């Protein structure tokens, strides 16, 4: 993904919050109450829309939480057929 500047600088508030510009929210389809994952990479803060992923294969669709483990339908099926 290419990095590009949209020419916006924002201050953090007293709680460390930053408002994401509407253009960015719209382009990434970020809606009210969407969850974002927060990462750091050296001197960068990286945000991305949260999507649960399968603990076994890493896919991020059709994921079911079983206890503290998240598994996709394919991995659940594979486990069922093995045991």
UniProtKB/TrEMBL annotation:
It comes from the Bacteria. Keywords: DNA-binding. InterPro entries: B_subtilis_Trans_State_Reg, SpoVT-AbrB_dom, SpoVT-AbrB_sf. Residues 7-52 form the SpoVT-AbrB domain. Pfam families: MazE_antitoxin. One of its GO terms (molecular function) is DNA binding. SUPFAM superfamilies: AbrB/MazE/MraZ-like. This is AbrB/MazE/SpoVT family DNA-binding domain-containing protein.
